[in-house]
């Protein structure tokens, strides 16, 4: 590692030109890591953005006096950061599809669609369509919206924040169901 690289690493957290030069210099490491990772909802640009976050972290914490090289250190930091991104994404996907098992057992006047104010096709078609993409719908909700929906389905009382979140869920569900109808 030469003096120019050490200077880039030192300046990178405060100087955007130094940061971009350092990022360009170590971009092959990033591209190698990207080829090993896959997440349906993240594009290549998203992975590069995450790599720049990892580069900032690595540049701030790297100590050139320790005798280690920056390349392997950055590779370890970016890999760790990517694993964290994947772990967070997978945790969101593991959110249980609240009340899915109960949809077909509810009486027609107490169905999910009725609770949320949806009126459209007949009840059986709505339940079938909702079951097909329910997990996708729930994964798109914020944690607060999921809790509000869960409380509403279990007929538990809602606080004011949850009531506002439930209004957002209603809007999202209407859009979701309208998309299923198309």
From TrEMBL:
The RNA polymerase sigma-70 region domain sits at 22-89
Q: Which domain of life is it from?
A: Bacteria
Q: Which Pfam families match?
A: Sigma70_r2
Q: Which SUPFAM superfamilies match?
A: Sigma2 domain of RNA polymerase sigma factors
Q: Which residues form a coiled coil?
A: none
- InterPro entries per the UniProt record, alphabetical: RNA_pol_sigma-70_dom, RNA_pol_sigma70_r2, RNA_pol_sigma_r2
Q: Indicate what this protein is called per its UniProt record.
A: Sigma-70 family RNA polymerase sigma factor
Organism, per UniProt? Lacticaseibacillus pabuli
Q: What is the lineage of its organism?
A: Bacteria, Bacillati, Bacillota, Bacilli, Lactobacillales
């Amino acid at each position: 590692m030469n003096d120019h690289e050490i200077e880039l690493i030192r300046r990178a957290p405060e100087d955007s030109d130094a940061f971009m030069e350092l990022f360009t210099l170590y971009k092959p490491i990033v591209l190698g890591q990207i080829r090993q990772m896959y997440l349906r909802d993240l594009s290549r640009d998203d992975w590069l953005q995450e790599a720049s976050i990892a580069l900032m972290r690595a540049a701030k914490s790297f100590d050139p006096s320790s005798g280690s090289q920056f390349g392997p250190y950055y590779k370890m930091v970016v890999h760790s950061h990517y694993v964290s991104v994947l772990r967070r994404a997978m945790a969101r996907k593991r959110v249980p599809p609240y009340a899915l098992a109960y949809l077909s057992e509810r009486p027609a006047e107490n169905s999910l669609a009725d609770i949320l104010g949806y009126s459209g096709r007949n009840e059986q078609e709505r339940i079938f369509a909702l079951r097909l993409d329910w997990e996708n719908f729930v994964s798109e909700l914020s944690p607060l919206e999921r809790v509000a929906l869960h409380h509403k389905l279990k007929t538990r009382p809602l606080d004011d924040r949850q009531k506002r979140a439930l209004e957002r869920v209603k809007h999202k569900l209407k859009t979701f169901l309208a998309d299923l109808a198309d």
